[in-house]
Structure to design on (786 residues):
């Protein structure tokens, strides 16, 4: 039965005919088939209903003939029934389906980073110039002892306390979990190469680690999630750390379905599932129904890695995150990973992405406080994810109690992503979030990894500058140091949860 | 650093003795290492087994095992040798989790999580096993003489020639074969009374790969919506026969008797059971 779609196009494709040379680059670049050359008329046609606004054709047009912009046509303005709400509803009326989306929550929830400001030294405490003085960004992830016993013999100092495994990273920025399957082999490899070159970590997500990439294992956090894809003994042992994924900020409480379009023969091999099936990650891990069970898996992974790797547990930031985090630490987690309301995804039901979970700022502050109050903050590092946009956000998070920050979207953007949110279609024109060889070969890991290294270098420099401005020469000194933060435009309860004073309060 | 010293004990590792204090629990005779687990915690037992392998042990006899967890899990590192482990008593949770090719025989029952994400090897249980048996199993074989609990063979996997096999002699509880993406599961129902159906409901819910073979009665309402029922074909019988014979050899059954009965074959009806619930 043919049903006319009542959707409005989202974008206008403006082709300046005087500039267009009909080279058909735009046609070849668009996997959504937004452009077409018509031989009979000898001209290019565009299909606006197919355009996702990813700007690939604009960037590659040799004569700058194209402009893509949001479609000005709209329904009668209505603050309640916005265009997006109408469009989603019509789509559901046509399909009866759950609306899928990609990348992070784009709704107007308050972004607390934009209401927090950092401190700097003036007169009484000199600032430090990072260009001529050493600045320490090195961070250790893992459990720290309750106290340190030292044996001092002249100049020789030995730590006699038995230490648990920690991973050293050269900057408190780690690439977050993005699986091979969700993203292309080229994008995945680029993250691995960049992490390795810069001395930080990437996270495999739950799609395994192809054998030939295991040489990057010492810079990998390998995930063990509900689908248990690609989890073999070598995978666990080649890693820097192992992460149990319980939840994800973009879709708390639900599992993941990697769409069958993306399950190629290579994905089928690493995940050990049939080609073309949806890769089903169940909502719960079926061996974890309690903190006790979580503990069982944490220790199973420690056993499988001879107690040589820190084990991280990642949860979505939800209302009672502090109590859960406390349980996680007591269950043996060495790293607590929290993923907030604005965390990204390759595919999630839009209703969940946009409505479930709490902002990472609130989750981080409350988890850090709870672990401190219980005297167990040293027993686990805190890694936070979900909506970090620049180095200012990173440093604010560290001042709020994080040990390091997971970044996903910034890394994708560095590789070319324009946040068009169509990751779930498998048609990413930038070759990042697709498994189509025609598209993936557009991303060159040599070049993409350099862009990622540049991003890490730029942000790290900026963090050093801000630290220097505070008169601090080691990131350790700002960790959980809320005195360096002040709130602007926040209500009392928000300042309370964050544990910071308002601007002007001393 | 603020710490309520001593108040928080590591749940399991609180007081684990060093390996040097544990050697008195082992008897080594050539390649055979016999360990009395009576006074050992699970980590201590696993520490000792690992140490024994470095000392050349190829066969283990573990006596008085009572719920020790993760037996076999730690033996997957820097050790190409495949060892055999005989367990007397009750094996604890996650027996053979992430197992890397060793053979484990339990002369007794096992608790939850047998063969969790196991990669290769063989586990034989002369008794029953608890919940989540063979979860996400990737390779190797598991034979269990009696019943298994809930959520057996969830999300089992396969790729090309790497196909895990699970054979259960008794019956199983709910969510048997849920989310299966690969592997072969054979449920024999040997302890069912005449006309008694298997216990499991939601068999093969969300299944999208692999095959389940069942001997004994199963009502339609016990099956998940994602499975279709077929008669086993020649290739199927070859696999059933091979594994039932191995099963019978392990536990002293007459394989011909078992094989003379009717089996049904369950396969996923769709490669994308949930593909239609989304609007693109």
């Amino acid at each position: 039965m043919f049903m006319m779609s009542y959707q409005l196009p989202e974008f206008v494709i403006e082709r300046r005919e005087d500039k267009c040379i009909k080279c058909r680059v735009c046609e070849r670049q668009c996997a959504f088939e937004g452009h077409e050359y018509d031989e009979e008329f000898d001209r290019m046609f565009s299909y606006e209903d197919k355009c996702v606004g990813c700007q690939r054709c604009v960037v590659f047009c040799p004569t700058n003939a194209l402009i893509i912009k949001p479609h000005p046509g709209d329904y009668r303005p209505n603050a309640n029934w916005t265009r997006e709400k109408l469009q989603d509803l019509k789509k559901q009326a046509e399909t009866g389906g759950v609306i899928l989306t990609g990348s992070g929550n784009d709704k107007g929830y308050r972004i607390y980073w934009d209401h927090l400001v950092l401190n700097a030294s003036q007169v009484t405490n000199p600032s430090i110039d990072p260009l001529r003085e050493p600045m320490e960004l090195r961070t250790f992830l893992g459990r720290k002892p309750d106290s340190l016993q030292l044996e001092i013999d002249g100049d020789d100092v030995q730590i006699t306390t038995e230490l648990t495994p920690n991973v050293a990273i050269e900057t408190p920025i780690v690439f977050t979990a993005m699986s091979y399957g969700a993203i292309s082999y080229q994008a995945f490899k680029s993250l691995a190469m960049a992490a390795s070159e810069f001395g930080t970590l990437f996270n495999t997500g739950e799609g395994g680690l192809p054998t030939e990439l295991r040489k990057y294992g010492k810079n990998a956090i390998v995930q063990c999630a509900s689908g248990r894809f690609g989890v073999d003994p070598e995978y666990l042992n080649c890693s820097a750390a192992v992460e149990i994924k319980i939840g994800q900020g973009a879709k708390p409480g639900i599992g993941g379905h990697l769409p069958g379009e993306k399950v190629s023969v290579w994905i089928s091999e690493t995940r050990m599932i049939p080609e073309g099936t949806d890769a089903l990650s169940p909502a719960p891990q079926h061996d974890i129904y309690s903190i006790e069970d979580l503990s069982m898996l944490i220790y199973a992974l420690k056993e499988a890695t001879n107690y040589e790797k820190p084990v991280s547990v990642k949860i979505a930031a939800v209302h009672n995150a502090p109590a859960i985090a406390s349980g996680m630490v007591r269950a043996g987690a060495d790293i607590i990973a929290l993923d907030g309301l604005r965390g990204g995804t390759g595919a999630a039901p839009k209703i969940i992405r946009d409505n479930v979970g709490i902002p990472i700022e609130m989750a981080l502050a409350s988890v850090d406080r709870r672990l401190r109050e219980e005297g167990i903050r040293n027993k686990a590092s805190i890694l936070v994810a979900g909506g970090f946009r620049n180095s200012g956000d990173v440093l604010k998070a560290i001042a709020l109690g994080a040990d390091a920050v997971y970044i996903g979207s910034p890394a994708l953007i560095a590789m070319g992503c324009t946040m068009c949110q169509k990751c779930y279609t498998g048609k990413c024109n930038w070759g990042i979030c697709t498994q189509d060889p025609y598209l993936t070969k557009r991303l060159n890991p040599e070049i993409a990894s350099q862009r990622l290294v540049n991003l890490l270098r730029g942000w790290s420099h900026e963090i050093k500058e801000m630290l220097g401005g505070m008169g601090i020469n080691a990131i350790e000194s700002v960790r959980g140091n809320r005195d360096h933060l002040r709130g602007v435009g926040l209500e009392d309860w928000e300042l309370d949860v964050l544990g910071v004073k308002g601007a002007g309060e001393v | 650093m603020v710490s309520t010293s001593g108040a928080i004990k590591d749940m399991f590792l609180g007081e684990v003795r060093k390996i040097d204090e544990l050697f008195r629990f082992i008897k080594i005779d050539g390649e055979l290492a016999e360990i009395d687990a009576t006074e050992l915690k699970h980590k201590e037992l696993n520490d000792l087994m690992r140490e024994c392998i470095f000392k050349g042990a190829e066969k283990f006899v573990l006596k008085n095992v009572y719920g020790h967890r993760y037996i076999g899990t730690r033996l997957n590192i820097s050790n190409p040798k495949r060892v055999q482990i005989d367990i007397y008593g009750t094996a604890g949770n996650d027996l053979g989790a992430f197992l890397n090719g060793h053979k484990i025989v339990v002369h007794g029952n096992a608790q939850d999580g047998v063969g969790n994400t196991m990669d290769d090897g063989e586990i034989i249980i002369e008794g029953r096993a608890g919940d989540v048996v063979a979860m996400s199993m990737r390779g190797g074989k598991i034979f269990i003489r009696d019943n298994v609990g809930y959520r057996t063979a969830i999300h089992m996997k396969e790729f090309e020639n790497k196909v895990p096999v699970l054979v259960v002699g008794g019956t199983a509880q709910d969510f048997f074969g849920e989310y299966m993406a690969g592997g072969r599961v054979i449920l024999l129902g040997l302890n069912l009374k005449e006309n008694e159906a298997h216990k499991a409901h939601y068999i093969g819910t969300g299944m999208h790969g692999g095959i389940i073979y069942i001997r004994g009665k199963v009502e339609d309402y016990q099956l998940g919506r994602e499975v279709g029922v077929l008669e086993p074909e020649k290739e199927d019988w070859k696999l059933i026969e091979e594994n039932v014979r191995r099963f019978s050899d392990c536990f002293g059954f007459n394989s011909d008797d078992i094989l003379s009965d009717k089996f049904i074959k369950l396969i996923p009806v769709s490669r994308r059971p949930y593909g239609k619930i989304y609007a693109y």
